[in-house]
Every structure is written in structure tokens, then in C-alpha cells.
User: Which sequence fits this backbone?
């Protein structure tokens, strides 16, 4: 196989794009947060913490990062006490196909591990 500078450049671009993607949606909590909001719609902070079993400190950090990356919207309600609701953005909906593919792969992988296969068909 001949490795050209174009092949190297393409591979490097793919690696950088994947790194960027995983920075935005990677980690233990980001995809679970997104999927809860996609499935259930708007949720308050305490509801998200309870549903996912995530500490308030970590939840706050994860929500802030998702908001910075335009995947969720934060809405402060004029109630007493003040409540904050989180929802997915239209932009976040572009992740649905990716989430479904990851879910499908995860199911196949789990089944392969159960059966002792080293190759998933």
C-alpha cells in the first residue's frame, strides 16, 4: 500500500474530527443527558439529577459544557423559587442518528461478549 501525503492528511483530518466529536459528546454523562432530554423533553435540574443518579456538581458541569456546544438550551423560569429547565436544541437533534447507531452497536457488542465472539457480524 502506498501512503501518500493525501492519505496521511485525510487520516489526520478524520482523527482530529473524531477527537473533536468525542470532546463534545464523550464521557460518562453527556449522551445519557442528551438521550433523556430527547426522549422526555424539558427537564429541571433536580429531575435530571434524580433520573440519571448524577451528583449536582457533575451535572452542572456537564450541562454547562453541552450548553456551550449548543446542544442544550437553558431556560430560567420566572417562578418562586426560580426554576431552570433544560431542553435539546434543534442542532442537538442532528445527533439522533449517531445515538441510534451507537445504541445498535452497543447491543451487538454486548451480545458478542456474552457469546464469546471476537468478531461482530
Assistant:
Amino acid at each position: 500500500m502506498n501512503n501518500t501525503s493525501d492519505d496521511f492528511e485525510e487520516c489526520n483530518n478524520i482523527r482530529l474530527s473524531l477527537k473533536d466529536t468525542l470532546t463534545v459528546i464523550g464521557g460518562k454523562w453527556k449522551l445519557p443527558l442528551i438521550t433523556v432530554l430527547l426522549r422526555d423533553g424539558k427537564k429541571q435540574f433536580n429531575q435530571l439529577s434524580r433520573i440519571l443518579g448524577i451528583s449536582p456538581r457533575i451535572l452542572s458541569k456537564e450541562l454547562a459544557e453541552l450548553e456551550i456546544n449548543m446542544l442544550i438550551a437553558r431556560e430560567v423560569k420566572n417562578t418562586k423559587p426560580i426554576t431552570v429547565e433544560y431542553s435539546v436544541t434543534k442542532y442537538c437533534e442532528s445527533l439522533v442518528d449517531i445515538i441510534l447507531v451507537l445504541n445498535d452497536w452497543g447491543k451487538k457488542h454486548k451480545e458478542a461478549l456474552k457469546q464469546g465472539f471476537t468478531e461482530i457480524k
Q: What stands out?
A: The mean pLDDT is 92.
